[in-house]
Amino acid sequence: VYELLDEMEMKGEDVLPNARTYGYLLNSAKKPDEVYCILERMERRGCKLDGDIYNLLLRLFMEWGIQESAQSIWNDMEREGMGPDKRSYTIMIHGLFEKGMMKESMRYFEEMTLKGVVPEPRTKLLVDAMNIKFNSEDSSKNLDNKGRKNRKTI
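Structure (tokenized):
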């Protein structure tokens, strides 16, 4: 793949890779090192990241469990005025939930709704399920080991 990319870059203006080309390469990346290499090539060629690339990077880093890199991408995306958008929030909310980070996931949902971004139906369902879990955990803290209300909390 990289040989073809090298060939495209050598042929000049008419066949230079663009964000879509690099997006395909990023999507096929198997590890973070590959992503950084592709991003470096993009930068060398002056190819700017667009909203789709930012969201792809968020998804990859969340899937790999590298929240620090995902947060860095999020910050870059905001600084460049490329988002976040509904997809960005959806990626973060679902990704954090899948990693067992429900409170962080809910923080993104709250920010999303405060900004007036309407969640996807699947995200709304996920948040409803998280709220049920949070509520049941809260109420179980007020029960003794036999399921009765603790006198201290009454």
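The chain is about 70% helix and 0% strand. The helical segments are 2-11, 19-27, 32-45, 51-63, 67-79, 86-98, 102-114, 121-141.
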